[in-house]
Please model this.
Amino acid sequence: MKLHHDMIKTIVATVIFALVLATTAMAEGEPPTGKAAEVNGKAILYTDFDRQLSMFTKQVMRGQSGKLPDALMQRLKDQVIQKMIGDELLYQQALKEGITIDAKTVDNEMTRIRGQFKDEKQYQAQLKASGHTEKNLREQIRRQATISQLIRKEIVPSVKVTPEDAKKYYESNKDKFRRPERVRARHILIKTEKGESAEKKAEARNKLKALQKRILAGEDFAALAKEYSQGPSSVRGGDLGYFTRGRMVKPFEDAAFKLAPNEVSDIVETEFGYHLIKVLDHQPEVNPSFDEIQPKIMSILFSEQLQKKLHPYVANLRKKAKIEVYIK
Model:
């Protein structure tokens, strides 16, 4: 079984994004104006470094408030600048080999990215939030496509994954592919505090009882959750996404897993207060066969081998390069 060209393209892009190399010693003092590092005399701009650091920090925080501990932030800074150095080394090597990307390729990718947003306003807002302009986004796309071409030329031909490899991996890692029973649900929460009086608890329950009547009369659950729910999921219309057993408090879990899709629970009491739960989807445990999961396994193994071969390739480029890092 061969991996489809588009799948290889996706894997290569993912590997480039994930590439983090051994740390280079940092120079002392503040960085020169505008520079985070230099690779063979080519500057890596501090503004580009700061944008990537911000993106990686958001991924690590996953929406949590506060800030990263200093030690973890320093480690993240090191990883981001080393990734950018690795990218620059690969890009410079691609140019040496005469690899170029035409404007149509960049245009097509820009069109694909735009298509992920409901309208131009949302696209422009996300562009601004990510610290990009259309010009530097196009440049980033062109650079990554150039690097991808180099990897497909120099590394991909040496990566070999067979169905036998995939079968062996499947037999040794069946639990990785088992998907336990799960539900996707919305909820409306009216909070109560620990040790609250019976009168206050009754008041909270009555509020939810009134909402329950409106739902039974045909009003939209999500709209009511957005307006009245006192939990953090209210901004998503109470949507909690998919969850498996053991992820929620027991009374909530027991009620949710008894419901069929589109069914709404009676009032459920937990340590957080009173809930109404609406299940959107209820999926049984799935144990996929090898035939079902083989393409995914082939992709995993291909990516792993590509990573292993890419690291020494970039390490060799690094040995011959002049690299200066200015950030602390």
The beta strands are 35-39, 42-45, 182-191, 239-244, 268-270, 273-283, 323-325. Residues 11-31 have pLDDT under 50 and may be disordered.
